[in-house]
Amino acid sequence: MDCVCKRKGIILSGGKGSRLYPITKGISKQIVPIFDKPMIYYPLSTLMLSGIEQILIITKEEDKDVFKNLLGDGSQLGISIEYAIQHSPDGIAQAFTIAKNFLGDSPAALILGDNLFHGDCLIDKLKNCNSKKNGASIIACPVKDPERYGVVYFDSTQKVVNIEEKPLKPKSNLAVTGLYYYDNTVCDRVKELKPSGRGELEITDLNNLYLKDNQLWIEKMGRGMVWLDTGTFDSLHEASSYIRTIEHRQDLKVGCPEEVAWRMGYINNEQLEKLAKPLYKSGYGTYLLNLLKEHQFHI
Fold this sequence. Notes:
Low-confidence stretches: none
Number of helices: 11
CATH class: Alpha Beta
Helix content: 25-40%
Strand order of the largest sheet: 5-4-1-6-11-8-12
CATH topology: Spore Coat Polysaccharide Biosynthesis Protein SpsA, Chain A
Strand content: 15-25%
Shape: globular
Structural class: alpha/beta
Number of domains: 1
Distance between the termini: 29 Å
Order of helices and strands: EEEHEHEHHEEHEEEEHHEEHHHH
CATH superfamily: Spore Coat Polysaccharide Biosynthesis Protein SpsA, Chain A
CATH architecture: Alpha-Beta Complex
C-alpha cells in the first residue's frame, strides 16, 4: 500500500531564458513577473501544496543571490530552501545529478521554474502523486500542439505504453507537463541515461525507464485545470492575463506562497501578519491581512 513519505522538492530555474531575450539578458526568467508575483512563486506554491517542505532551487551562479534575496532560507514560510548551481544546462534530468547530495535517500519532486498550475482538483492530484512510495508519477495535460512536448501514448485499455519526445506526428494530445514525482531510485536511474542527440539528459528517457519497469503512473489534468509554460513572450502575457482575471474576479490570489504556508499550517497568524506588513503598499500585503480577518479556506 502506498503511504505518505517525506519527499524533497526541486525547482529547476537554470538555463539562459533565451526565448525571452532581451528581458532575460539582465534578469533570471524565473524572477520575471506573472501579473503580481515573480514567476518562481508559482512552482514554489505548487510544491508546497503537495506537502513538500524541503526545497532545492537550482539556478545559474549569477542568479543565486537574487533568489536568496527574494526567498532566503524559507524559514519565514515555515519551510527549508537551499540553493545549487547549474553551470551548464544539459537537460532536465541533470537536475538529479546536481541534487544528489540534497536528496540523499529521499524521494523527489521536480518542477520546472517556468510552469504554472491551477484549477479544480489540483491539490488532490498533487497530494496523490506525493503519496506514492514507489515508482514515478507525472502530470499530463491535453494540449492543441502536442508536437512541442513529450507525448503520452496509451493502449486500448488506457495503459501507458510509451512517451515520445516531440513527435512529428503525435498519436495523442496528452502532453507531459513540467512536474514529476519520483521514488528514491531516481538518482541511480539517471546514471543509466545517455545524452540525447542534442547532448542533454532527457527527462522523457528517465520516465521511460520507469515505464519499462511498470512503475510509471499518469495523473491527467481535466476540464477546469490549467497548465501554462511561461517561457515565451506570448505565454508570459497569457499567463499574466489569466492570473489577473482569476484574481480580480474571485478576489483570491494564485501562487501566493505566504497564503499557502499559512493554510498548510507551516506558519501561524502572527507570522503571516509579519510577512504582510512590509507588502502593504502594493496591495499584496493588504490581501494577506484580509485573510486573517476572513478566515475562509480558499486556495
